[in-house]
Amino acid sequence: SYASPLYQPGDILSISEKVISLCQDRIVNIKEVKLGFWAKFLSQFVLKTKAGWSVGNPYKMQVAINLAGLPRILFAAACAALTKPLGIKGVFYKVAGHGISGIDGFYGGAFDWYKTKGILGPHKPNKVCDEIQTKLGIACMIVDANDLGIKILGCSKNVGYSHEELKAMIKDNPAGQDNEQTPPLS
Q1: Would you say 145 and 173 are in contact if contact means Cβ atoms under 8 Å apart?
Q2: pTM for the whole thing?
Q3: Which residues contact 57 (CB under 8 A, 6 or more apart)?
Q4: Taken in order 35, 36, 37, 41, is the CA torsion positive or negative?
Q5: Residue 137, CB half-sphere, CA atoms under 13 Å: how many?
Q6: CB within 8 A of 10, min separation 6: which ones?
Q7: DSSP H or E run through 172
Q8: Which pLDDT belongs to residue 141?
Q9: Distance (Å, rounded) from C-alpha 22 to C-alpha 83?
């Protein structure tokens, strides 16, 4: 109802991954997260970035352990510990996989609602984009854009551009990072 009246052939609708994840009910309530020893321990060694704590938040680390399994998270942490002194960043997330880098929430800095909620990445983002294009005739991409970078999580089959070209189109992160760009949650 919002995009269709403005959409023109050749346009590509950029959709935040959070919107799709919320529509798919990929929400974890803090009450459902049983915080364990390893989550508390490992989260102490994560550096805070300008975008926040990521898995430095023990609840996010516990969700990561739940998604990927403790052995894989321990292996990812060991790899990160070995490569961090060499200036290589992001190894933990690459080794852990399972969409761990896309876990949002458990932080109330922007909205109180996020204090007790975690949001997982969208399920089958390419399929979602294809469904949108089939049902609405709108080419689209699902994007995780923040202060640290841009990831194209999915796009319509007939979008006509590579992921790198799509990233270049939105490199200025037009949706912004602050709450003035987001309607208030009720």
Answers
A1: yes
A2: 0.83
A3: 43, 106, 107
A4: negative
A5: 7
A6: none
A7: none
A8: 97
A9: 34
